[in-house]
């Protein structure tokens, strides 16, 4: 296999099976093949375009409950053998320090068929990217604005083979487009689309939506305090991504660090909040199995405002005891050091027809398009801080009136979900689209929501 | 071999498994590309990383990761295209070149870019490394971590203890159509420990030597030995537990003294990123954001008090932003960014320098591996030492304030103007002495106001270099390792207790 590109007629999982032959004893091989294309633009000009065709071969050895791993990006037999030796040496070194807490590899189970692949997207046609950029530039120009953003598409195939008989493979595609429209004064608006298929990205529509959030008025600043807020889906999605790690991480939960430790079965959010991990939802980015080859099934997390479940990989499930099983949320072979987390969050919509209806009755409040540089202040309280960006507006008497400067908020996600008053019926898939490391596209399917008591703690002096 | 600084540098023996740079192949593909585009480069990167961790007494994350490949970047007309492949064969590189040209060719047309000239980089360079981490056995490394991890668990309320070490060896080769043909090897090594304590739903954490890879340097295993993790661990565990019963940090405005590790992140977020020229020119508006600084501000803007002296130094021994040439072949240099509180320069690459009409790049083009393109990154952006003596001297000189140590949270707006940081711990300062311990400490400010309130910086003997391993930027995302030098410093009238 040295130096040769992957042959498309051969299943990736068969390469994984052959790589498995290099591992002595209990082990797992995980192959991830990424092909992706990302075109960036700024000031309505293309700036960078990156195409990636790369492979990760992860070899995991298990010895006496200890795991050792080696990752290479080659299918060369010599390199595979060397990597297998390194993985074994690491596992043995761990075992030398005493028995570990890894419960062993998963038993084979047929993964469900969730789809999630579009052959046209997998072609990664640079002309499609170029056309999308042209369309976004034209639409921005109609409003006298400049466009900034990315068009990105990828095909990622994951295959797992293990000595316990796991033999699974899934190819998924994803596509993402975001446009920030900006005027000469620095006022900006944001919009994005995400989908399994690049054909679903509406470049003109996204640019139009972004342009509509650029106001010609001067922005005002809000005094620190609590405000009724309408959060657009992008802002809701960002908060829920953080909640996934703070509240639904089974390892943090069993260690007592999780935000729901001791709170499962209690009311933690407004009764209209129904949050689940839904890997087969047709409008999310479906995934059939996790990094341990465990099938992914829908997992209710908060039902009618009551904390219901947390996510587990095999290690955290073993720590939890009492017959707890993995829920299919391992992020890395052998489980991620930081623990498992949901990656297909779906927040069910509510009864409002749209964002306009959410704003009805708000005498003075805030509309937030998206949040930026959000970070955890206190884990157990799900307390976050961050700033609003690219489309923040004052709501007065139920109408958007004036743009607002980027505002700093410091608030609890669970607190906001408790203070939620209404949700839109429509939901949208929102992604971060930043793709650090090996591409692993995730998104949150969610509505816009209205909540009271959103805590603003600061603002920049201008802009 | 090019030499940087006074420290003697040694070259490395070739790697035995065929990992030597395929220089002839790179030359060949760049030669072929030159006939089809205005500029071309082929960048080969071989990266080997080892991460070991011990959690709650159990070895975890015993992982070794290596990758190798080539990124081919071309400038055709006004469009850039980069294609990255792990198939380092003549056919593989040929395919990648074709794709890079196709990508560049399908970009919407824009104004042509003229890159500033660069003197061809020729040679080899390696970072200093006295004790090669690959010669230390896994058992020895694990024994150190197991000992440190156990020493963290001083109390049943420490629910999670972590000890980890890291080593990374990155080899790069760059060939460009400008005549550059150079190779570099950088060894990075470091370690750290962390304790989480929990009581009544409250989570407190203490780290050593700090967060975000603060204990990593461009060095060998000697750097890990010097950290003395087992010796520090009991204090770290005890401090995490003590925070559980400490009162919350009071709100108000006070003088604050920042420990140099927290100050390193403050420099990173509110100076380093703000002075990236691509951000200033709106090139990063879609993701990382812009800057409150405008291009015309360079040479006149007051950024902070007279005590604010900031450099970007890619020649600093031990720095994670140290190299001989950047990823566009521009030689490393030490440059002044802020002198006497006035903005003097910015961080640039060839593209941003061209956009501003500069005569030369600032040598800050760096790429995360072979599958990402070089963009403007920090090197080692540091606050130069002052004359306030030691940390103890500075505390003794403060009548009423807070001492803040250990970064716990960080956030700054997309113009790098309004920031809020949380620290693991705070100590009251009263009449020149440290007083009670506070938990959940935080402070906030606005960049030029905050740096304008800088009224004391400790002296050179208190100045240290801190690593940051999680600097994210670019699309697709790129993680960069950088370092920041700092000594403890004092800021007057700072908003504290904001979270």
Explain what this protein looks like in three dimensions.
The complex is a heterodimer of chains A (463) and B (499). Chain A contains 10 helices and 19 strands. With 463 residues, chain A is of the alpha+beta class. Chain A has 2 domains: 12-212, PmbA/TldD fold (2-Layer Sandwich), CATH 3.30.2290; 225-459, no CATH class. In chain A, strands 3-2-1-4-5-6 form a 6-stranded antiparallel sheet. Chain A has a 5-stranded mixed beta barrel with strand order 7-12-13-15-19. Chain A is globular. The N and C termini of chain A lie far apart (56 Å). Chain B is α+β, with helices and mostly antiparallel strands and 499 residues long. Chain B folds into 2 domains: 23-244, PmbA/TldD superfamily (PmbA/TldD fold); 252-496, no CATH class. The longest helix of chain B has 16 residues, at 90-105. The radius of gyration of chain B is 23 Å and the shape is globular. At the A-B interface, strand 1, strand 2, strand 3, helix 2 and helix 4 of A face strand 1, strand 2, strand 3, helix 2 and helix 3 of B. Strand 2 (45-63) of chain A pairs parallel with strand 3 of chain B, so a sheet runs across the interface.
Shape field of chain B: globular
Largest interface: A-B, 99 and 93 residues
Name the average pLDDT of chain A. Answer: 95
Tell me the domain tally of chain B: 2
**Fraction in helix of chain A:** 10-25%
Name the overall outline of chain A. Answer: globular
- Total count of strands of chain A: 19
Main sheet record of chain B: 8 strands, mixed
Order of helices and strands of chain A: HEEEHHHEEEHEHHEEEHEHEEEEHEEEE
Tell me the domain tally of chain A. Answer: 2
Count of helix runs of chain A: 10
The helix tally of chain B amounts to 10
